[in-house]
Amino acid sequence: MSTTVEPQMEAGDRATVPDGTVDPREALGERLFGSLIATAEMYTVYLGLELGLYEALAEHGPLTVDDLAQRTGVAERYVHEWAEQQAVAGLITADTTEHPVRRRYHLEAEHAEVLVDPESPYYMAGAALFVAGCARALRLVPDAFRNGDGVAYSAYGTEVRDGIAAFNRPAFLHELGSAWLPSVPAIHERLATARHARVLDLGCGKGTSSIAMARAYPHVQVVGIDLDHASVLDARGAAEAEGLADRVTFHHGDAARLAAGDGFDLITVFEALHDMGDPVGTLRAARRMLVEGGSVLVADERVAESFTAPGDDLERLNYAFSVVHCLPATMAEGPVEANGTVLRSRTVRRWAEEAGFARCEELSIDFAFWRFYRLAG
After folding, report:
1. 249: number of Cβ within 10 Å
2. Whole-prediction pTM
3. Which of 280, 304, 328, 332 is deepest in the core (most CB within 10 A)?
4. What is the arithmetic mean of pLDDT over 100-114?
5. Over 50: is that where the pLDDT of 52 sits?
6. Domain co-membership, 256 together with 137
7. Number of CB atoms found within 10 A of residue 214's CB
């Protein structure tokens, strides 16, 4: 390995160019080395989730390697390596004063919220599932780049489906019904006061957003639509488990090809419009299904207003996901327009206008990852 990324190198030893600045080759090498560590550690987080190791530590810890192996059914030698790695990474703690056989490992309560509790606002373990899903399909992406085809959403496995749902779940549970919708009077008052208000949730995924809206507004009927059949089945099971199957129903279908039926007071598209192969068709179909005075609420990525390089962390994140997942998955649909993850506000306004909406209002909802738009008229 090049000495430019040796972790033991002191800051004063960094190579410099004649003007005294750090050699850009070294700077980039160090950055990629840090990315290598972070990526490898995300895979170990995935293993901790998939094998139930974090859950066992949260419920029964502190545990020795032998205890953890017995509780999870994982081979002891693998548990030993994983536990030491997690302790070295600072994700769990270890009693280093004990002999390795008697050493106990502990998952602190604060870290358990991030890694184990899917309803905590701090939960981030879903990101590891998404990374694992992208890794599953990555071998297919180079050929898609070469021939202009796509990579089917199903090729990314359950990990991407579960990872997206897990990543967004805390916001839906803690903010959708208590902060986001109440902050828009035209939407909130209609849902809160109408006796038979109806909501259509397009690109509903595993249904957490649909269920959150039904919880927040007890008289509302919610219909969720998604192109992924497995997600629809999961959503139906979630509605049953919540005792909401009488008010929340889910259907498999293409949002751009929905036939007009009974009208809806609100139609939502949460972080799904950029993935749709016919976004204007979807918005046009949504407009047809709105009752008079109804609204379409779109939430999508909070990216820069225009292309800027280099970009900030959110821009880097969204472009990276677009390259390895969102764009290939959309290209697999034979799209009318393949946008990718980086959905800029001017594009949303253009799509809304092409779909026939008279108004596209950017809302002042404060959320780190998404911008919100209300379409009407």
Report:
1. 17
2. 0.90
3. 328
4. 96
5. yes
6. yes
7. 24
